[in-house]
């Protein structure tokens, strides 16, 4: 039965952008292998069934969309703890670096755990 698997991983724009073309191509291959190796810890090992792949980096996003720092969408600077300059205003959602519906939910759960359940003091 044919299917698709999409894997999303956080990436550092500055590191990807600093690579020359040869190093960039090698790093994409290396990271494909590392990401796949990580994925098969959680899903059935699909590697013998792959017929096509597509991998992009933050520099790919800049090339085709001109988004600042290769951000897929949302703010190019991610605030991992959700804090803002305003007391008691915590951001969660896809602007925090997670993608899609699942990412938005994970961000909300992470911010609730960090700031509500653990009682992290506000700045």
Can you put this structure into words, describing what you see?
By secondary structure, the protein is an all-alpha fold. It has four helices and no strands. It has helices spanning 13-17, 21-39, 58-65, 100-117.
The secondary-structure class comes to mainly alpha
Poorly predicted sequence stretches spanning 5 or more consecutive residues: none
Largest sheet: none
What number is the mean pLDDT? 85
User: What order do the SSEs take from the amino end to the carboxyl end, as H and E?
Assistant: HHHH
Q: How many strands in all?
A: 0
Tell the overall outline. globular
Helix segment tally: 4
Radius of gyration: 17 Å
In angstroms, what separates the terminal alpha carbons? 52 Å
Fraction of residues in helix: 40-55%
Share of β-strand residues: under 5%
Question: Any key phrases for this structure?
Answer:
single chain, 123 residues, mainly alpha, 41% helix, 0% strand
Gist of the model:
The chain is mainly alpha-helical.
List the helices and strands and how they pair.
Blueprint: H1 13-17, H2 21-39, H3 58-65, H4 100-117
């Amino acid at each position: 039965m044919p299917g698709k698997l999409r894997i999303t991983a956080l990436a550092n724009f500055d590191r990807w952008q600093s690579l020359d073309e040869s190093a960039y191509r090698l790093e994409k291959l290396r990271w494909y292998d590392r990401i796949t190796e990580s994925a098969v810890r959680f899903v059935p090992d699909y590697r013998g069934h792959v017929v096509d792949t597509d991998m992009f980096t933050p520099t790919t996003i800049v090339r085709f969309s001109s988004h600042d720092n290769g951000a897929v969408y949302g703010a190019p600077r991610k605030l991992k703890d959700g804090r803002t300059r305003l007391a008691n205003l915590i951001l969660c959602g896809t602007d925090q670096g997670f993608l899609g519906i699942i990412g938005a939910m994970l961000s909300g759960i992470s911010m609730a755990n960090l700031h509500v359940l653990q009682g992290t003091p506000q700045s």
